[in-house]
Amino acid sequence: MGERLSLVWLQSGGCGGCTQSLLCHEPGPVFDALEVAGIDLRYHPGLSAPVGDVIELLDAIADGREPLDILCIEGAMLRGPHGTGHFHRLGGTGRAMTDWVARLAPRARYVAAVGSCSAYGGFSATAGNPLDACGLAYDGDTPGGLLGAGFASAGGLPVINIAGCPTHPGWVVETLQKLALEGFAPDELDAYGRPRLYADQLVHHGCGRNEFYEFKASAEKASDLGCLMENLGCKGTQAHADCNLRPWNGGGSCVKGGYACISCTEPGFEDPGHPFQETPKVAGIPIGLPTDMPKAWFVALAALSKSATPKRVRENATADHPLVVPALKKTGLK
Question: Does the pTM of the predicted model rise above 0.90?
């Protein structure tokens, strides 16, 4: 194995949910996955064994006396009040977390924003954003954030935005492993800085409700089996993530559990302007259509699909369990 990489993980304005998700990594403990990749977890506020004087370690990194390969930040950057950052001070230092991150980030070979809060601001930036919360290199969908739009780490990369609320443990571990074993090229990040290893997919891909979607057989209430897009706010056709191709915790996803996708990997998802489980419509047409399909095509396809919906699909769509099972029919195929 080549050189080992050092990792420091700090938590800022958030709930810690991305760390909780990380602990559900499969197969095997996350610590084993990092060890095999040659990554030494130097510090995590909740997961590290005692490491001596943490403040001395961070000071040494910030001053250039100690090298750092990977800096992971979980949680939004809280710049308030009035740009001081004093809404969140790092315990024992009296210094704003925003100051610490601004000192440490240029020293790290790679900087990763873990979760949509750290990437774009997330839930801390809702309700008029009284915390003046932002991401590391984005403020919502606008480049900038705490570090600025032109930020590049010591390794020459922008901030790697492992977006999600929370992130899938596989997204985090595979990103860190790739950094350690292969490195990242700029074109392996999408337009919002997300690793394309998961962001080139849509939540729609692999969704267990896709037959209902194809026939526009829609659920009407949360317990129904049908497609959740038309009435219940699902944005799976727009959300960049592979949630239904790599299930969570061995077998689940939001839509599989009956809850609409709220596109938590996208900037600004936390404040859509309407209840999460409602689908706004104009003239009866959902405004959240697939991003790569013209509206006229979708309307025409929906009309055709609904006219051809099998009785089984139509009746099962508004039930909480299958009422009609697939027919037994010989097709002539050997």
Answer: yes
Residue 1: pLDDT above 70? no
**Which residue type is seen at 206?**
G
> What is the residue extent of each domain of the chain?
5-199, 202-320
Burial class (CB in 10 A: 0-12, 13-18, 19+), 256: middle
**Residue 137's Cα: distance from chain center in Å?**
15
Asked whether this chain's domains 5-199 and 202-320 adopt the same fold, the reply is no
Domain 5-199 -> CATH class: alpha beta
Q: In the structure encoding, which two tokens stand for residue 22, read together?
A: 């990380």
pLDDT in tens, 80-122: 999 999 999 998 899 999 999 999 999 999 999 999 999 999 9
Two tokens at 226? 């049908």
Read off the pLDDT band of 287 (50, 70, 90).
Answer: confident
Fold adopted by 202-320: Cytochrome-c3 Hydrogenase; Chain A, domain 2 (4.10.480)
Distance CA 70, CA 103 (A): 14
Q: Are 73 and 113 in contact (CB under 8 A)?
A: yes
Report residue 273 as tokens.
């302007």
The two tokens of residue 142 are: 């606008």
Residue 13 near residue 131 (C-beta atoms within 8 A): yes
CA distance 106 to 50: 26
User: What's the Cα-to-Cα distance from 227 to each of 137, 209, 224, 281, rounded to whole Å?
Assistant: 35, 6, 8, 16
Q: Where are the alpha helices (DSSP H) in 51-147?
A: 54-62, 97-104, 116-120
For 55, the token pair is: 């403040």
